[in-house]
Amino acid sequence: MSAPLSGPGSATQTPGREPARPGLPRTSRTARNHAPITATGLVVKVVLLGLVAGIAIWAAFPLIEAEHWIGLGVLAVTTAGLFYLYLSRRHIPAKYLVPGTLFLIAFQVFPVLYTASTAFTNFGDGHRGSKDDAIVAIQTSSVKQVPGSTEYNLSIATKGDPATGSLVFLLSDPKTKEVFVGDAGGLRKLDAADVTVSSLSGKVTAADGYTVLNIGQASGRSDAVTALIVPTDGGAIRSNGLTRAYEGKAARAYDAGCDCVKDSETGKTWSADEKVGSFVAADGERLTQGWKVDVGLKNFSAVLTDPNISKPFFGTLAWNFAFAVGSTGFTFLLGMAIALALHSPRMKGTNFYRVLLILPYAMPSFAMLLVWRDMFNTDFGLVNNLFGLDVDWFGGSWSARIAVLLVQLWLGYPYMFLVATGALQAIPRELTEATSVDGATPWQSFRAVTLPLLLVALSPLLIASFAYNFNNVNAILFTTEGGPFAPDNPRNGATDLLITYTYRLAFGAQGAEFGLAATVSIFIFAIVATVSAISFRRTRKQEEVYS
After folding, report:
1. 484 preceded by cis ω (within 30°)?
2. What is the pTM of this model?
3. What is the pLDDT, as a whole number, of residue 28?
4. Longest C-alpha distance within the chain, in Å?
5. If you ran DSSP here, which 8-state letter would residue 127 be given?
6. How is 217-251 classified by DSSP, letter by letter?
7. For 471-513, where are the alpha helices, taking DSSP H only?
8. Residues of the chain with pLDDT under 70
């Protein structure tokens, strides 16, 4: 038997090949697999890729100026990869995954890695820049006016907005008639054609690229004017009021030979200590200005062994666990109890009660925290007046902690009520009815059937709630602000959580310690991650038992 011929009218076709349709040309595989790009889609692609190119060019200049060649290389490779990916008709899944991945790296992975790297440094107030920056700051801060110092006519100006722009000094020399502009980066001469100098006062009244402030505007920023120091060779220029400036001589100078700072007036010497990033004298005195250095595990050791840090850390950690467990446990118990009551078929008007009970959940939490803070006020608070009490709720350690837990109970039970209601509706009534037939009491039925099934469904939510409450900064800052504080320890209060303690370390009035704060943040992450991992493992075992 001969094989049948295949043709336009034949019923037999080659396997795996699409038959040609009469009157239509056979399309290529590329055309079949990819829909044509519309004009709108093309415009969107061009705009987005143009935006990517613009951002890459904008980011390249600071990297080149700072000589961060590795960062520049990563930027170039990433930009080239994005152009290849979105100009190619291949790698369709990657086109959807890459944007989310880049945002994940930029806003999650990079901040975590930066925080971890900061924990191994002494980064903080007095240790923010390099050693050269510290030397300049030490020398310029010790500048004093001496006989014969050059004096200038001073005009205060800004680059941009007069109220918020960075300040500069516009200086005119009465003797040479030269005009200069100075800031923290140094002094440079201005072209006479770019400035206007008053013939009466000798002050600069206008300059290209700068906004000259009047007396009222300059007075409003007098603190910043006083703090601005313009470094020069062997000295610095400082303001003397708002209309005059002088070039003084630094009393303290850096000597590269001994790698030390010497005070010409007292003769005292501070030698550089690279381990701590400071200039230290023989008697142990450190200069305020230091530089950022790697300190290894010093911050971690201090958190665990230094009594001044470890004592408040472990005390706060114990309360932090109590707060997180109490906030999660009490809200769960109350929410579940209400959900069980409304789940009863004998209960009438359940929809009305449910709407009423979730009102705390519908209100903005930060506003409710402020309201509760006033309700616990000793003198005019509703709690004391309603119950006839005379309790200084936020004045004592335990009363403040109880108040915080009560506020959390009111704010958190509606959420637990909602999730428990949903979980109860998913439990077949036949199971509880079967226990009743077997002679079990309602309590026995709840303990043997309802509660285990609820925990299987709600355990992940309880773990998430614990992690959230462990770092619930709003609950503390908006009510007690971490207090009450002991007289000898203004950094750590009785109701502080580790996160608020960390915030105070990083941004407190006593001086920022970013390296130490980053170390505490790593401990917080490790604690929450460990507790969550153990809890999820137990949850999986529980699911296996009741599955």
Report:
1. yes
2. 0.80
3. 45
4. 121
5. B
6. HHHHTHHHHHH--EEETTEEEEEETTTEEEEEEES
7. 473-477, 498-507
8. 1-37, 234, 509, 542-547
